[in-house]
Amino acid sequence: MGPTASGKTDLAIDLVEALNGELISVDSALVYRGLDIGSAKPDYPHHLIDIRDPSEPYNVADFVRDADRAVADIIARGHTPILVGGTMLYFKAFLEGLSPMPESEPDMRAAIETEADLLGWPALHAQLEAIDPISAANIHPNHSSRIARALEVYRLSGTPLSQWQQQSQERVAPTQQYRVSQFALAPFDRAVLHERIQRRFELMLEQGFIEEVKALRARGDLHADLPAIRAVGYRQVWQYLGGEFDVQACIDRGVAATRQLAKRQLTWLRKWPNLFWIYTDAHGNLVEHFESEVTRGAQKPSDLILNCLQSPQ
């Protein structure tokens, strides 16, 4: 785990041979086909990359299901699953299960009821059928309270009511089935991370990021409210192409949004239990901020992880 631009992917690739591993992407943008440059999509094979069209929303329940399957398949092949990414909600749900279904919010419920007054409950039932056909099949088109609740759950969480209901109470957490080791990679100096984010965003533009988003807009079936287009960087370039601001503002906003993402990721990680931190300098080398048995002799982050995995602690 770690903030964006911290070097997670390169580190994970370094570990593959030593651990006889296979990589599983834990990234909410990399799941989408056609989001390549702006998501820094790696060339190295990962599970759960390019598995959805950007017109098809992908949510945390989808990830838990797909990651469970990928982990089981990898272990069945005698290999080690290595999960790598920066979507902390995905990691948390995978390790702990989905959070409880969101509670009702009066403002959201009032908005749905106002919409029903204008369109009628059968029209809202049709909306529900488009996003959650399983729930829609079990709810009569005039059953207002159940339609409202199903739409409310989806609009609050992005996850269909049926998926919440199907989330098995019998799912065994990975920590109860396997030895799970958790590592966070981050530059010791926050300024180093900010500089990497700036350079990477500018490099993406040089590689054709704007042209990539132009091609997505040209499809005609995508819009700014889709999760794929809301991804950091894509949202700002989409707005630039829509004439909302100039290219320099696009760069400034894209970099600022990416830095905010990194800040949120670090906030998640500071509260994360059972996490081993690996700090690096501007060149990606280890910063020896403490000395212990596992750090002794480690020259690079992958050495430190391998030392940890060999340790009985």
Blueprint of the fold:
Blueprint (H helix, E strand, L loop, with lengths): L7 H12 L1 E6 L33 H17 L3 E6 L2 H9 L9 H14 L1 H11 L1 H5 L6 H14 L3 H6 L7 H4 L5 E5 L2 H18 L1 H11 L7 H4 L3 H8 L5 H24 L5 E5 L20 H10 L3
Parallel strand pairs: 1-2, 3-4
Helix pairs in contact: 2-3, 4-5, 4-7, 5-7, 10-14, 11-13, 13-14
Can you give me a brief rundown of this structure?
The protein has 313 residues and is mostly helical.
**Ends distance:** 20 Å
Helix content: 40-55%
Task: Report the biggest beta sheet as strand number plus sense, adding barrel if it closes.
Answer: 2 strands, parallel
Q: Report the mean per-residue pLDDT as an integer.
A: 92
The total count of strands amounts to 4
Low-pLDDT stretches: none
